[in-house]
Specification:
Strand 1 and strand 2 form a beta hairpin. The chain is mainly beta. The protein has 1 helix and 2 strands. The protein is elongated, with a radius of gyration of 13 Å.
Amino acid sequence: MFRYWLVIFDRRSGLPTLSDRTMTENVISAAGREIIVIRG
C-alpha cells in the first residue's frame, strides 16, 4: 500500500502555536480510501 503526504505550512503572523492548532481526523474518501487529515 502506498502512502503519500501533502504538507502545507501556514506561516501567517498572529496564529496560535502549532501545537495549539494541530488536530487530526480520519476520513474515508469518495473512492473508499482511508485518509488521515492533519490540520495545523
